[in-house]
Amino acid sequence: MEIIEDVTGIHADSRKIQPGYLFVAVKGVQSDGHDYIEKAIENGAKAIVCQVLPEKQHADVQYIKVEDSAEALGEIASRWNDEPSKKLQLIGVTGTNGKTTIATLLYTMFRKLGYKVGLLSTVCNYINDKAVPATHTTPDAIELNNLLAQMVEAGCDYAFMEVSSHSVVQKRIAGLQFKGGIFTNLTRDHLDYHPTFEDYRDAKKAFFDSLPADAFALTNKDDKNGMFMLQNTKANKQTYSVLSLADFKGRIIETHIEGTLMSINNKEVATQFVGKFNVYNLLAVYGAAVLLEQNPDDVLVSLSTLHPVAGRFQTFRSPEGYTAIVDYAHTPDALTNVLNAIHEVAAGRGNIITVVGCGGNRDKGKRPIMAKESAKLSNRVILTSDNPRFEEPEDIISDMFAGLTEDDIKKTIKITDRKEAIRTACMLAQTGDVILIAGKGHEDYQEIKGVKYHFDDREVVQEIFKS
Predict the structure, then answer these.
(1) How far is Cα 428 from Cα 57, in angstroms, rounded to an integer?
(2) First-to-last CA distance in the chain?
(3) Do 282 and 240 form a contact (C-beta atoms < 8 A)?
(4) Cβ distance 121 to 108 under 8 Å?
(5) What is the dihedral of CA 428, 430, 433, 434, to 10 degrees?
(6) Is residue 356 pLDDT above 50, yes or no?
(7) 364-413: per-residue pLDDT in tens?
């Protein structure tokens, strides 16, 4: 690593190379950094890390050949920042649903417990109380280590981060030392990126395989892939469950629209969260906190004060007496979980109206499933636009519509304009009804033809309520 001491900066983007930098040529999904080695040298790179040495080499440039440049980038970024992950208690949360909620609640809880804490999440990154906008679920290795280094400099004791399957496959977390890993659940998602569901599953498992012996691996025992995640890990194996015996056992005592009364390891706690899926999230939070040697009673008290994360089952009560819920649910399983939670608390007292869309240029296979699940668990369904990206929103809605039966179609409306779809749902709703607006949650934009336009489901709902 002597070369690191001789250079003035590192980057894997040739456009951001400055004189004296080291350029790491990474083979990406859409482009290969090896094609930009010459461009990096033109911009002033004095050293190149690559998997394949270029035919043309410059005498004043040092070339370092490695087996895996993506992994090397993680290791270099870590060393460049003086290995910040070793100076923090870093916890990774992975799975299809619940990552943001669990990571954010742990961040909030540990701050309430008096610690300085960092958060790396889909919604926003935090260095203690300083917000840093998030662009990816898991940043690239350079940005990730820079953020962790800033957390160390700010005196943070803990850092909680979402670990996406993309980040594992692309080696973005290479070089990091985790104190623990949490597995939430595994359902269909990101099959536009992973060739098969098994590839997606194995990417999650690889994170646990890499955990060291002094870390913990906490898994959802009730998920059919939960114990699979622990098969080859060297870490301390721990479980949480609602259905069977586990290290952290939960039970739902009572549920209503304002929250859930539950027990954890036979101790009752009143929470401000709704739905069985949130009981699992809270169990994971409790388990991780206890495994990080926090007092169990203090953790329970803190759990009772926590609020839902922005855009996750976020509830708005209308002047007319119906409720609108904004939720990030954008997979079939997440949508089913949220609708089941609404059924649990609504108990048949009103109609459920679901506004839902699917993102463009993503897994098309889930579109008819999303529509079918919405129709199965709702009295009315409005199919609408949700980040169509470079696809026509009408084509996406047609793909969703294809999943509906004749009976489903009778209670389904197609409204491309998302604001009008939400407005129509509010017009249809009566006292006691519940509207679910699914898919975008915390997002405050619509992405259309490469341009992001401001759009926030929560703002739209509140605007309609005031009109």
Answers:
(1) 69
(2) 63
(3) no
(4) no
(5) 50
(6) yes
(7) 999 999 999 999 999 999 999 999 999 999 999 999 999 999 999 999 99
**Both tokens of residue 398?**
């047609």
Strand order through the sheet with 248-256: 130-133, 124-127, 117-120, 158-162, 89-94, 180-183, 216-220, 236-241, 248-256, 259-264, 267-271
Q: How many CB atoms lie within 10 A of CB 254?
A: 10
At residue 2, what are phi and psi to the nearest 5 degrees? -60, -35
Q: Are strands 248-256 and 158-162 parallel, antiparallel or unpaired?
A: unpaired
- In this model, does residue 3 exceed pLDDT 60? no
Output helix, strand, coil percentages for the chain, rounded to the nearest 5: 35, 25, 40
Mean pLDDT of 227-244: 97
Contact in structure between 272 and 284 (CB atoms under 8 Å): no
The residue count of the chain comes to 467
Residue type, 181: G
CB 216 within 8 A of CB 294: no
- What's the maximum distance between 2 C-alpha atoms anywhere in the chain? 78
Tokens found for residue 179: 């104190």
